[in-house]
Every structure is written in C-alpha cells, then in structure tokens.
Amino acid sequence: MLTPVRWIVTGSLVGYLIWQANPLEIWQSLLTVDLPLLLLALVLQFIGIAISAAKWGMLLRARGHRLPYGWLLNAYLVGQFANNFLPTTIGGDALRAVQLRRRIGSLTQASASIFLERLTGFLALSLIVCLALLVAYVQVTGTPLVTDPFWLVVTVGFSLLAVGAAVLSFFAPLILQLFGAYLPAVALRPMERVAAALASYFPQGRTLLGVVLMSLLFQSLWVVIHAVCGMALGIDAPLLLYALMVPISDILGLVPVFVNNVGAREIAFTVYLTQVGVSQATALALAFLIFAVRLVVSLLGGVVVFFGGADLRITADTEPSPPAASGGSPSEPISSEAP
User: What is the C-alpha to C-alpha distance for residues 238 and 218, in angstroms, rounded to an integer?
Assistant: First the structure.
C-alpha cells in the first residue's frame, strides 16, 4: 500500500533536485567521468559483495551449516539483482532466505542468519559515522566538514539514532525479559523477531570478532567506492567527508518513503558536498554514478539466474514468520550490507 507513496515521494524529490541543479549541467558532469577510476569502483563493488557473502558464510558455519562459498556468492548476487531489477514484491533478502531454506531446511534459521548479517553491517555503519564525527569535531583536516549549524545538529542526531537503534537491537532479549509485558504490540512484535534472530545466530568469541571486522571492512570499502567515484568526477573532497556523508545517506535511506535509497542519497550528497564547494549538479552526478555502479554489478546476479544458478520461485512455507529481512540499501534493510 505504501509503494505508490514511496515512488511519488522519491520521484518528486529527485525531480526537484535535478530541476534545481540543471539537467544539462548534471549530464556534462557525468560526461567528464574518468573511465579507469569508474572501472576500479565496479571492481571494488564486486569485492564488497564477495566480503558480505563470506561474512554470511561465517555466521552459518557458527551454527553448523557449511555451504560452498561459490553458492553463497551466487545467492548474494541474485539477491542484489532482485533488489534492483525485479518487482518490489520480491525482496532480495527474502529470495536469499528461500534459497538458503532449500539448503538447510529451515526458513526461520535462514532469515535469522540474513537478519543478523544485516544488523552487524548496520552496527559497523554506525561506528564509522561516529568515528568520522569525532575526527571532524577535532578538525583534523583543518577545515570544518559541516559548516551549517542546522546540518551539524542533523548529522549528530542521525549518528546517535543509528547507534541507539543498533544497541537496542542487540539488547532486545534483555529488554523483552524486563519490559516485554509493558510494550505495546507495535513495538513488541519487531522486538520479538530481533530477539529470536539473536537467539538463533548471535556469534560468539572469534566468530563475533570476525563478523564485526568483516562488517567494518565492507562498510569502509563502501566509503572508498564513493571516494573513487568522486575522484572520477573530479571532486576534490577529503575521505573523511565521505566517511561522514555515506553512512548518513544510508541511514536516511532506511526511512520507508524512499525506494532503494534513491532520493535519500541525492539529498545527503547535495547537502554535504555543497558545503565544501562542490556544485549541486556534480553532487547529483556522483549520486547517480554510485547508483549506476550498484546496478551494473548487480547484473551479475541476472547472469547467475540466466545460467540456472538460482531458483527465483518463492513458495509458501508452514514455518512461523521469520525475522523481517526485506531487500533494499548497503545495496539493503539494515543498511546496506552490500548496498
């Protein structure tokens, strides 16, 4: 029911920003792109998906499910393809969960593994933006990255919100135990799903350390991809700005009025890049270039499907409803693991 509203809001926002920036100037910025750097961004995007697939496999091995890495990578690529090219009713994470169920026999466990993989990615994203805020506050670069006081407050607010959401998710079982009887149904149901996922798949010891490190590696690589695309467009901005701007755009993209992070990314890039002297047209060109990189790499999932490497059927299941793990930015529900 919300889908038409999301398309209208996203389309209106992007259309307004394009009109303000002048479509011709945006096109001219895109024509200046450095092709070798663009190719590097495509390669890095594929490496990011490969890291996410390896992290997913690590979570599964901790529960005794040893699946071939090639299968995990193919399933991840197909999920990205579904997110970007198939109808919105077919979420990439839902498709991954069904494919995994056919391997391990449990849709609940399959969905829990995907949910936790996303949750750890969101935690890494929150840590990166907080670290970037801290470094920006002491002005290591010598130049304030956010000069408008209003947007500085917004940045801090989104960062704290992200950390709070991540911490709340990890403490869901304790919160349910202490306050479950007092929570309204609208908060109780998602809390129960999060708690069930944590009970099923929360990693311990070395596995937990490995999962967190791989999440940080992926999210850091996602920031670098943006910086490489910025360099391809001739944008002269410090890496620290990308470390601040990229997580904020992904967190903003979780608001359910946006489609696949489109609109949220354009707003965030325009706000932050124009404060360091980048034109609005070039900022939007970067947003469109990042989206194009994601689309091109996700086409590899279509190749997997074409050669029979995945089954796109989503069949009914008699198991209890699994934790929500719908597709979307990073590529994705709880941002953007493999955006």
Answer: 20
Q: What are phi and psi of 336, to 5 degrees?
A: 40, 45
Q: How far apart are CA 36 and CA 247, in angstroms?
A: 25
Mean pLDDT across the chain = 80
d(CA 75, CA 95): 8
User: What is this structure's pTM?
Assistant: 0.82
Share of the chain above pLDDT 70, in %: 78
Cα dihedral 231→243→57→114 (10° resolution): -120
Each residue of 163-173: pLDDT tens digit?
Answer: 777 677 667 77
Q: Residue 81's closest CA among 101, 67, 99, 59? A: 99
More confident residue, 159 or 55: 55
Cβ-proximal residues to 96 (8 Å cutoff; 6+ apart), any chain: 75, 76, 78, 79, 110, 114
Q: Which residues contact 192 (CB under 8 A, 6 or more apart)?
A: 176
Q: Could you tell me the CA-to-CA distances from 90 to 25, 85, 105, 113, 299 in Å, in that order?
A: 36, 10, 21, 19, 16
Q: Count of CB atoms within 10 A of residue 274's CB? A: 16
238's tokens: 């410090």
**In this predicted structure, what is the pLDDT of residue 315?**
54
- Other residues' Cβ atoms within 10 Å of the Cβ of residue 92: 30
DSSP assignment of 30-99 equals HHT--HHHHHHHHHHHHHHHHHHHHHHHHHHHHTT----HHHHHHHHHHHHHHHHHS-TTS-HHHHHHHH
Report the amino acid identity of residue 190. Answer: P
Q: Tens of pLDDT along 284-319? A: 999 999 999 999 999 999 888 887 776 666 554 444
